[in-house]
Amino acid sequence: MSIPSPASSKGKSKLKEPENLLILASSPHLHTTTSTQSIMWQVVLALSPAATMAIYYFRWPAVVIILTSVIAAVLTEAVINRLKGETLTITDGSAVITGLLLALTLPPTFSIGGTILGAVVAIGIGKQLFGGLGYNIFNPALLGRAFLQASFPIGMTTWSTPATLAGSAVDGVSTATPLGLYKFEHALTGYADLFVGNVGGSLGETSALAILIGGLYLLIRRFADWRIPVSYLGGVVIIGGIFWAFAPNQFPDPVFHLLSGGLILGAFFMATDMVTSPITHLATWIYGIGMALILVIIRLFGGLPEGVMYSILLMNAVTPLLNRYTRPKIFGEVQS
Amino acid sequence: MAKKQISIWQEIVKGLWRENPVLATLLGLCPTLAVTNTAVNGLAMGLATSFVLLSSSLFISSLRNFIPHQVRIASYIVIIATFVTVADRFLAGFFPAISQSLGPYVPLIVVNCLILGRQEAFSSKNKISRSLLDGIGMGLGFSLVLIALGMVRELLGSGSIFGITLLGEWFEPWMVMILPPGAFLTLGFFIAIANWINDRRATA
Q1: Are A211 and A265 contacting, i.e. CB atoms less than 8 angstroms apart?
Q2: Is ipTM beyond 0.85?
Q3: Do B185 and A153 touch (CB under 8 A)?
Q4: Chain B: nearest CA to A112, how far in angstroms?
Q5: Whether B185 contacts chain A with CB within 8 A
Q6: What is the DSSP string of B48-95?
Q7: Is any Cβ of chain B less than 8 angstroms from the Cβ of A154?
Q8: CATH of domain A36-324
């Protein structure tokens, strides 16, 4: 975004312009070359390790779900753009991210029709109905997943073992997620398996390592506010730790909380969504700790084994309120 | 509002679209959202509400010069509750299955703001014949929207309409559509489409 200088814009007129013009422009004076488009494509890049691990663990079904979801999301965006008479916004990459994130939250055995429905709901209802990128209240991918969870409760909770565990079988044996195992059978899964992702679960929630690589890239490039993952993950460790300290036999330890389920994926890629997370620093801390509290309550006392999706969606809903109440004082403001 | 009387035909038709209780004035949303998980339920609720609306409009319009202004709301409620009891007992006696699935929403017609709203805004100020026409139009408009909502939700949520399976084995029902979120989503789309049509008419 460069300031169009009068010299260049009037260059074609016959009036001869002096070389050194004094250029007057209003603030901001510092411009960055970063655009929405470049950020979005770098988020896609940051998600690629997680997607690669998903394909490594779950093989063909993972490829099919990821491709279906991304293509359906992009097509939905294009169709709605056309219906609204807007210019196509598919090249900004945001629909690709939504499709990719949605795919990573789905179980590997999920149906293709269901995946398409989820992507259409995510983009159509979750994003475009609110007015497109920047206007949506909820994270579109999670909204799509919530719709699927409510629509297909069985399909969304049928997990299969990774191909690495089940030998070469493409159709993995159905299994429970580490959180499900803990909740319903009180069995713990080893930390090493949890960390590299050699467990049952959604496509993208299995490998903490792959998500951390992409997540750290986002933090280093400052495309995600570090306060969100720190407050969310830190909150889970502290709140989960308090429960564990009081009743270690009844509740899982904080490390298990951190590594299992979709927590790390949610904390780095979904909670940090620029559109649906708070703006002010104080609000960001409240946002993260609020998510942690909701997550721990759902995991320990709720009917579902996992609560990342609802914790993020619920805090998305209060984000405008948080922004409003933590608005900083304007410098030089006079009390009226 | 308008001093000049509109035609008899218009009195009926206004309830179907321009002043449709659900799509335009958003009255009586509680039963609209709660019981439209199947087309049959929508139809039953629409007919029950229409019956109560029509009967109480007739009654209140004929008593409009005798009801003291200060106690009019209480009087309306007593009259409406009488007809609701009739509808409720009728359903329980002849259609026990429907009565069961509608649950407390039949007795709740008493506090349906559509009915009370029509009495306050129309029947208490107009002749019996006009109130009757107004009741027919409003009841019809309400019922049609409820049936349409029920049909869409039943089709997507159970793969059938009026209990007749339309979508085959391949179709995996969207459970969410027969749950409360499905009601809000479908109604939202209905109102959006209605507004869109009105906008297009206005600009055309």
Answers
A1: yes
A2: no
A3: no
A4: 11
A5: yes
A6: HHHHHHHHHHHHHHHTTTTS-GGGHHHHHHHHHHHHHHHHHHHHHHH-
A7: no
A8: 1.10.3430
